[in-house]
Amino acid sequence: MIEISNLHKSYRMGANTLHVLKGINFSVADGELVSIMGSSGSGKSTLLNILGMLDEADEGSYVLDGVTIKNLSEKQAAKYRNKFLGFIFQSFNLIGYKSALDNVALPLYYQGHSRSERMDRAMSYLEKVGLADWAGHLPNELSGGQKQRVAIARALASDPKVLLADEPTGALDTKTSYEVMDLIQEINDEGRTILVVTHEHDIAQMTKRIVHLKDGVIIEDTKVSQVRAFENV
Amino acid sequence: MFDLDRWNEIFETIRKNKLRTFLTGLSVASGIFILVVLLGIGEGMRNGISREFEQDASNLIFVWPGVTSKEYKGLNPGRRIQLKNDDYNRILLENSDKLDKTSSTYQVWSSVVSYGKESGSYRMDGVFPDYQYLENMSLTAGRFINNNDVEHVEKSIVIGYQVKKDLFREEDPIGKYVELSGINFKVVGVFTDPGGEREEARVVIPITTAQKALGGSNNIGRLYLTLKPEDNFEAAVAASTAFSEDLGEFLRERHTIAPDDNRAININNTLEHAKRFYGLMDMIRLFFWGVGVCTIIAGVVGVSNIMLIIVKERTREIGIRKALGAQPLSIVGMILHESIFVTAIAGFIGLIFSLTLLEFIGPAIETQFIYNPTVNFTVALNTVFILVLAGALAGFFPAWRAARIKPIIALRDE
Known about the structure:
The complex is a heterodimer of chains A (233) and B (414).
Chain A: E1 2-13, E2 16-28, E3 33-37, H1 44-51, E4 59-64, E5 67-68, H2 74-84, E6 85-88, H3 100-111, H4 115-128, H5 144-157, E7 162-166, H6 174-189, E8 193-198, H7 201-205, E9 209-214, E10 217-223
Parallel strand pairs in A: 3-8, 3-9, 6-7, 7-8
Antiparallel strand pairs in A: 1-2, 1-4, 4-5, 9-10
Chain B: H1 4-16, H2 18-57, E1 60-65, E2 83-84, H3 85-94, E3 99-115, E4 118-127, H4 131-134, E5 138-142, H5 147-151, E6 156-160, H6 161-168, E7 177-180, E8 183-192, H7 197-200, E9 202-206, H8 207-213, E10 219-220, E11 222-227, H9 233-254, E12 265-269, H10 270-313, H11 315-323, H12 328-361, H13 377-404, H14 407-412
Parallel strand pairs in B: 4-9, 6-8
Antiparallel strand pairs in B: 1-11, 1-12, 2-10, 3-4, 3-7, 3-11, 5-8, 6-9, 7-8
């Protein structure tokens, strides 16, 4: 599903150049649930942003579902993001003035579906994350866990190939974190490829594979026996 | 543009951001409102001034002689010019096709008029019948001097309302005799004058009688002339100005006065005064336009500021939308669509309010100098379009910039 080789990325900070990714080689197969771990500054978020086409690599190749992602125009990038990827953010990034349902329906709007279809599909994803009763509520009327579940529904709405989650539990307490991870595991069980960036070991243990990043290189890449989140709730 | 979903998006955004929308709208609506009201008042002032001139002053040309101020053809300056009946008759003869109402007058500035025991000192004018129209007099009783009075040198007298009050009090003066310079005159009428008390403390007799009985011989004091009406104001001013010049030239030549000696022959052309007033009005209108345009510019700056703030405020949202697959053009479109929609609606609201105000309050304004304030609808409409366009342009650049920000940076924006 994802093939990257020799990925480099550096940022210019004034006069200095900060080399964040120093040759990443990494591939993810269909249906995997991978966690990317590392301390802050290890480059894990940068890697995720490049995978999410929110940022561009300086060097190296990135192939997503057989499509080479390189030198994309804004328009192309937007199209691929919409088609291939679903994002889950640490800070949820819901649109504050839109109801939960409308937030979930937004990717479908950009896919060009009719309004009634958008609403139907958005509703079914809200049901899937258990928030059908909260469809009409605004994000600030929801708890953190509920917000993140709305965000997951939104990420799923466009039926993407890969879900990218950047610290999805970073702003949540342990119990809520596990509930969210339980949902992520369920979605993975249905066969969807998911990448989770985290710095929490217990969260990483709930995935099927842990990739350790340190100073811009992968130092460890191991399959783990998955801990089911609901057992810990 | 006619994408229903886009409209839904916009209505939703507007509904959820009422204050922001209201502020944008307010700055646009008030800009248009102020401009239209200013233009309306400007037009109203113009109408008011026109009306003043239409009512009172008509197109009177008024000639009175003075003293020469320049040496000419061997004649010394300081010579007093005396107009004669001949001058008047020649002017009538040569310009019969142009002239409408005419009268020469002979006046005695202070003459004693008495009735019984009462007497007073009044200005006396010897006039032709047209004088009534030239001076805008109206009669409260009796008649004015007529052609028969002039032809037969009748001793008829028309007295001003003030004179009637002084001499006759409550008594009916018509048919009574008053004494003027030792001669008995029969009162045939009483007049009032829009000029008020001062103008009504006068008596009027036939010019022939005045010249014969009061030592005027064939001297005349003043000339009052009006021209036949023209189709429009500009033509009337042009004709009036040309005629005044010809008249001056004619009289100067007849009395051997230097052609550039304006003090020997004074010609007062009321229409030219009116024109000067109109010139002033045009300046005032220009000023109003200036103020109005500045208001619009302030409105545009206001809209631009708000658009900048909106884009800044929505940077994160733009980032989210881009992460979800929004294309740059759709972001720009969304922001512009909203701004155009809001400015257009607000602009029309401002327009409607101001037009309503002018329509209903306008006719109620009871000021001498403002009458029927109106505004050219096309001009007002164009202003709205300009403002909408400016608002769109002002919104475009920040929107374009926002749409080009990498989503990762937009998402980081707090």
